Amino acid sequence: MLLSSESFPQTVTNSEDSTTFHSPKKAAIMSAALPGLGQAYNKKYWKIPIIYAGFGTLIYFIQTNGSEYRNFKNAYNIVATGDTASFSTNEYVVRYNRNINQLQEGRNYYRRNLELSYILTGMLYILQIIDASVDANLFDFDVSDDLTFRFEPMTSNYFLASKPTPGITLKYRF
Fold this sequence. Notes:
By secondary structure, the protein is mainly α. The protein has helices at 24-33, 37-41, 47-81, 91-95, 100-137, and strands spanning 148-156, 165-173.
């Protein structure tokens, strides 16, 4: 009697009924934690190099545009403040012959490109999270040979129509 109160009923699990659920939430969280991890969870390994190539390219543009922006900004500040001691030491002041308009245009151009690079990096990050979530939603999608979708030409003779009317019929089978 004392032992029966501590015993548990036996549970039977049917292996045919238990299916593993592929979680879109888990894929999105994994992809947010480390870009490409959600794609690995979805077994879409071919997407991982594309994601990292995109991030690598955007990081290159961030570094290049950031460096050029800082160079133009420093040269612009030197010319705008009239710091004659730094005229000959700054390469961009010498290259653009102290033209403040060209230095300002270069500064604005590279600042705009730097900001665009940051925006595109953020968009790529969000896009790869969305991709992982959508792939997880479609992971168990049935694509069998029983699914068909085709267009066929047709002519219809309506009751009051004097001539046959051409048209297109959409036929699908599940």
